[in-house]
């Protein structure tokens, strides 16, 4: 029986590289590219079918930053498929990243250079905004939209006698210090990306606690430092041109500089080949590349507080209930006006 695999944010970067690797691994799977930009998604599908002409590649319009889009896409998925084997939650945003140039050049010539590039700690801030649902945009896109998608697709993920996998693309930028349970949307901070990624790490742990008994297993990966559109948005292109030779040189001494989307997708691909029962629910699986260019995956324990992860899960469920209630009221008002 063919495996059904859904990848959010699949039209470029790590998501597209993962799709290419999955089709090379198993040409019989049914792959669904869940993307916000359908023109780019169609181009990605065409590229995949050029190299894998006999593959089954579907498209799904999904903007994980919009509650209505998530709900509509979930209904379409349930109409198309009878089950889901893998749900790769890869879509994410880092809007308006700002770099402390002084800190950048200071770190560039210090012993902290590798950690600075690998995590962005002390270097990056972002300017977030409110979306049309009244949620912080980064929180909605990187975390809540994916959480809502999982909740909607539980009938296909939690089938009797069937194991399914949810895999989150996290980041080395996920830091506990950036997250507050009292401000889970990060309305009052300047590191919404770090906050949302740490929250996804915690949510994965909570999902395993709640859903393993129903056959749903969640994992988290870190792609390493990868040059994607998101990365190129952090600094002007001429900066990357100047420092790229340095980064290739540094990779001789550190395995976290994966640099290419193909390398960054290593852990995502590796998890596709593992049995869920063999995985550590508290580990983040890192894509790593040696100085000689060899790719491999290594698990590292996450700094997760069990009580906080449970509190986050409960608050997300409460937010989901609240938003569904508002949508129902809005629909009722429309019917009354009609």
Outline of this structure?
The chain is α/β, with parallel strands linked by helices. The protein is built from 13 helices and 10 strands.
* Span of the ends, CA to CA: 47 Å
Q: In what range is the share of β-strand residues?
A: 15-25%
Roughly how many Å is the radius of gyration? 20 Å
Look at the helices and sheets and give the structural class.
alpha/beta
Shape, principal axes of CA atoms = globular
Helix tally equals 13
Count the E strands.
10
> Which ranges are low-confidence, i.e. pLDDT below 50, for 5 or more consecutive residues?
none
Strand order of the largest sheet: 3-2-1-4-7-8-9-10
| Overall mean confidence score, pLDDT | 88
Compressed to H and E, one letter per element, the order equals: EHEHEHEEHHEHHEHEHHHHEEH
- Main β sheet profile: 8 strands, mixed
In helices, the fraction of residues equals 40-55%
Summarize this structure as a short list of keywords or feature phrases.
globular, alpha/beta, two-stranded antiparallel ribbon, about 350 residues
């Amino acid at each position: 029986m063919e495996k059904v695999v859904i990848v959010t944010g699949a039209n470029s970067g790590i998501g597209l590289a993962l799709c290419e690797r999955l089709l090379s691994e198993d040409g019989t799977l049914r792959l669904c590219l869940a993307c916000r930009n359908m023109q780019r998604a169609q181009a990605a599908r065409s590229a995949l079918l050029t190299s894998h002409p006999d593959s089954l590649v579907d498209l799904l319009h999904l903007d994980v930053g919009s509650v209505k889009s998530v709900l509509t896409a979930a209904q379409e998925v349930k109409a198309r498929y009878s089950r889901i084997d893998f749900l790769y939650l890869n879509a994410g945003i880092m809007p308006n990243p700002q770099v402390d140039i002084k800190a950048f050049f200071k770190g560039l010539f210090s012993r902290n250079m590798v950690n600075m590039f690998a995590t962005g700690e002390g270097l990056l801030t972002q300017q977030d905004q409110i979306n049309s649902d009244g949620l912080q945009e980064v929180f909605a896109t990187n975390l809540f939209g994916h959480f809502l998608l999982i909740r909607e697709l539980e009938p296909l993920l939690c089938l009797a006698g069937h194991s399914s996998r949810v895999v989150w693309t996290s980041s080395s930028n996920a830091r506990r210090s950036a997250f507050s349970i009292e401000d889970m949307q990060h309305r009052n901070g300047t590191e919404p990306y770090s906050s949302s990624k740490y929250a996804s790490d915690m949510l994965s742990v909570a999902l395993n606690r709640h859903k393993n008994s129903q056959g749903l297993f969640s994992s988290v990966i870190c792609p390493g430092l990868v040059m994607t559109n998101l990365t190129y948005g952090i600094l002007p292109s001429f900066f990357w041109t100047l420092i790229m030779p340095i980064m290739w040189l540094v990779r001789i001494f550190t395995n976290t500089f994966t640099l290419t989307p193909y390398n960054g997708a290593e852990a995502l691909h590796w998890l596709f080949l593992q049995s869920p029962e063999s995985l550590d629910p508290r580990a983040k699986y890192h894509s790593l590349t040696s100085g000689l260019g060899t790719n491999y995956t290594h698990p590292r324990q996450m700094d997760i507080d069990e009580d906080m992860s449970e509190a986050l899960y409960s608050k997300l469920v409460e937010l989901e209930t609240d938003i569904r209630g508002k949508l129902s009221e809005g629909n009722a008002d429309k019917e009354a006006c009609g």
